[in-house]
């Protein structure tokens, strides 16, 4: 029995070391091809989805990865730019090369509003968790600097837009994980191609039911720690574990939940869940 425990302990230590030293910085770009654009619009539209960047000061490897990404028509960041408020300048500079040719949109997440603090990892396994009091961060500074660079803040807003000849009804929601989202702005008013942008996928079922065609979310880190055959150990949201990463169909909507590119600086590891940027290559759907 002692030998078994020693072997398990060594295996666990090796997995943690791999998650810290290798996988948490093993960035990749994943591409999906989606035939969902309506007739009459552009034939193709490339949308780059970034999420949960969790920048710290001097995060050069992640910045280099972002700078090397292919250009897209639209870039969307679904929140949690920051792992610490001191990294506002680092984050804004790092996402600058990744801006979209036609549009750049963002919403924020709780780590942008509040200064992250260490927490007991076991708390993620509790069915409900209390939100602790937290010190406010530099969200206003982050928003102002992003907007000066041409990014558009979509927080709790619904607007009509046009990108590369495609009329869009565009919804942005604040972080549902901290209950700052405002669904009063969400009901659709047009027949345009509907895009809903949010930090937490907790709001995805409502927006899908309202008829948005594409729903884009982050927050979950894909579970951050996944096991073969099991999947994500935790979701950090109300969505089922199988829906916390990648593409899902929800009614008539396509939902993409990004596994994100970063982690909290107090939980700097990933396992079986590589950090990811996603290129959604949208194509005109067939007529029949």
Spell out the blueprint of helices and strands:
Elements: H1 2-21, E1 28-37, E2 44-50, H2 60-67, E3 74-78, H3 88-95, E4 103-107, H4 110-113, H5 139-148, E5 152-153, E6 157-163, E7 166-173, E8 193-198, H6 204-209, E9 214-217, E10 226-227, E11 231-232, E12 246-250, E13 253-257, E14 276-284
Parallel strand pairs: 1-14, 2-3, 3-4, 4-5, 7-8, 8-9, 9-13
Antiparallel strand pairs: 2-14, 6-7, 10-11, 12-13
Helix pairs in contact: 2-3
List descriptors:
single chain; 288 residues; alpha/beta; 6-stranded mixed beta sheet; 14 strands; globular
Tell me what the structure shows.
The chain is of the alpha/beta class and 288 residues long. The chain contains 6 helices and 14 strands. α2 runs parallel beside α3. The longest helix is centred in the first third of the chain and has 20 residues.
- What percent of residues are in strands? 25-35%
| Strands in their spatial order, largest beta sheet | 1-14-2-3-4-5
Oligomer: single chain
Give the overall shape, derived from the CA principal axes.
Answer: globular
Note poorly predicted spans. Answer: none
DSSP strand tally: 14
Give the class from helix and strand content and strand pairing.
alpha/beta
Question: How are helices and strands ordered from N to C?
Answer: HEEHEHEHHEEEEHEEEEEE
Mean pLDDT: 91
Q: Approximately how much helix is present in the residues?
A: 10-25%
- Cα radius of gyration in angstroms: 19 Å
Reported for the largest beta sheet, the result is: 6 strands, mixed
Distance between the termini: 63 Å
Briefly characterize the structure.
The chain has 288 residues and is α/β, with parallel strands linked by helices. Helices cover 19% and strands 27% of the residues.
